[in-house]
Design brief:
heterodimer, B: mainly beta, globular
């Protein structure tokens, strides 16, 4: 069974914020939320991860709801280079399964000029 | 961070033959992994390449079909044996610098077409 649910595709205008939702209603207490993206013809690239607090880095922001059942990845000013498939993944930080990344189908984000 | 290279970048092979894919990392890493991405699909973990011992395979993947070697902390190979058209995929190597590392780095992938 899929541990995360994401929309199949989304469009975003260049320069605007891209908000990518992810549902992970069965997340466990020791599981983190990770986001990766895969640009066409490249390997996946790590973006950000979080447990329960909102996180921000140079690439994106991650907003996790208080009940941790869903999250939103925010690209504040989308560019054409952000066109990619975005994967939301949950996995434990340590212990069994902590090194495995289970990729779902992801969201194909198209940034429109 | 880690920089990963894979060879070959792409190949076209005949059914029944085997292809060995190489993965080279620019630094010593604890964990190395092999993934498969079938056309239009997401990534599926094939196995974890363990240094000095046999690889750990995920359900649906077996050593006879996908033998893996990992002779040191910077290098691994994946062989796709007795290929059929269903093996046409992109094969990707990834690494984690430490066992609990939150970030995995991926190679560019090897695009395999079996005719």
């Amino acid at each position: 069974d899929a541990k995360t649910t994401q929309p199949t595709s989304m469009d975003c205008a260049e320069g605007r914020a891209a908000n990518l939702p992810c549902n992970h209603s069965t997340i466990s207490g020791n599981e983190y939320v990770y986001w990766y993206r895969q640009i066409h013809s490249q390997g996946p690239q790590y973006i950000i991860h979080g447990l329960k607090n909102n996180e921000t880095n140079e690439m994106a922001s991650l907003i996790i709801t208080e009940d941790r059942k869903s999250s939103t990845l925010i690209l504040p000013h989308a560019t054409l280079r952000d066109t990619a498939v975005y994967y939301c993944i949950v996995r434990p930080f340590s212990g069994a399964g902590s090194y495995q990344l289970t990729f779902g189908k992801g969201t194909k984000l198209s940034v429109i000029p | 961070s880690a920089v990963i290279s894979q060879k070959p970048s792409r190949d076209i092979c005949q059914r029944g033959t085997s292809l060995t894919i190489q993965c080279q990392v620019d630094s010593q890493v604890t964990m190395m992994f092999w993934y498969r991405q079938q056309p239009g699909q997401s990534l599926t973990l094939i196995a974890t390449a363990n240094q000095g011992s046999e690889a750990t395979y995920e359900s649906g993947f077996v050593i006879d079909k996908f033998p893996i070697s990992r002779p040191n902390l910077t290098f691994s190979t994946l062989t796709v044996s007795n290929m059929s058209p269903e093996d046409s995929s992109i094969y990707l190597c990834s690494v984690a610098l430490q066992q609990n590392s939150y970030e995995q780095y991926f190679g560019p992938g090897t695009r395999l077409t079996v005719t």
